[in-house]
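Entry for the shared binder. Reason: the reviewer on the internal report wants the predicted structure included alongside the sequence.
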Amino acid sequence: MNTSLNKESTLQPQVATYSLWQMILYFLKLGTVGFGGPVALTGYMYTDLVEKRKWVSEEDYKDGLALSQLAPGPLAAQLAIYLGYVHYRFIGATLVAIAFVLPSFIMVVCLGWTYVRFGGLTWMQAVFYAVGASVIGIIAFSAYKLTTKTIGKDWLLWTIFSIAGIVTVITETENVLLFLGAGIVYWLVKSPPKGIGKTLKIKSIDPFSTSLLLGVAISSNSGSLWNIFTFFAKAGAFVFGSGLAIVPFLYGGTVKEYGWLDPQQFLDAVAVAMITPGPVVITTGFIGYLVEGFSGATVAALATFLPCYLLTIVPAPLFKKYGKLPGINAFVNGVTAAATGAISGAVIVLGKRSIIDVPTALFALITLLLLWKTKKISEPIIILISAIIGLIVYPLIQ
């Protein structure tokens, strides 16, 4: 009888210690001032919502992080959607998604208008020179905090973490099969299966089958706006992990396949994503604006985030219903360790592109030390100061 009641209770939203409006305001703020890409953004969510405010439990955060790595799409946006879903279900997930994405969308549209109007962002190289390096310091610190909180002292989790990190550094991409394999290995070692194989199969495969259905639905092409929608929906539905994974996909489509942008315009689009807050993949809005103006930006952004929204809320009830079972817990812990390792490996991959000389190395190191030693200076302030210094230093060294 008690078991039945416990199972039934997991189907119901937990009692929230905050209002939906408070959560919306938090993600509106994070989308406005949250710099550093997916690693930093997921770190902010952990620090703010789990550690400081205690709105979200450690278990719910870990479930969301694991699901965000298993399902295709932008990591930070998926985690935000899941955390909105935890207590307020579909309405919470929907409003959080809008609040998180809207500020950066408005920013990239404004930058797109400036880019088209004035023939390019010549000042952006100077800004990105310093900001890109400082962002690496922010990401590294966030990765450190995330690692210490999710891995603990378990030797097997550290092994999984290390392998995932090394593979990410070598391949410069994130492989979902690695995450699935890590979850299965940890599950088999720590909690051998007892009739939950079917549960794991549903939880693991459902996002993929859904993405395949999405692919069939968007396979036809007619009209430029429809081409934009189909291409960016595929990007959102089939690319796993973070901006690290989506950038090569976007380059192949926008530059090589469709010829919408030339290589320099694409690099400018990536720079826009890095110097604006919020999810990195919001660069799709900038690209869409260059191709078809405001309507192109809107369609591109909607197409990118719609699959990740669906592929987060559809399997989410399975995490809520079965997440307390020992086997599922073991599986999630294994996936989380691999995800954290891949995120840490991404710090090195991104660092190789942003730290190119002594000044940029100093930007990254000073940022890391500031975050390590003091809690009084926020990341947006560091980004602003770095941008100003970059505008001064960059012309002197070129």
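Summary line for the report: The chain has 17 helices and no strands.
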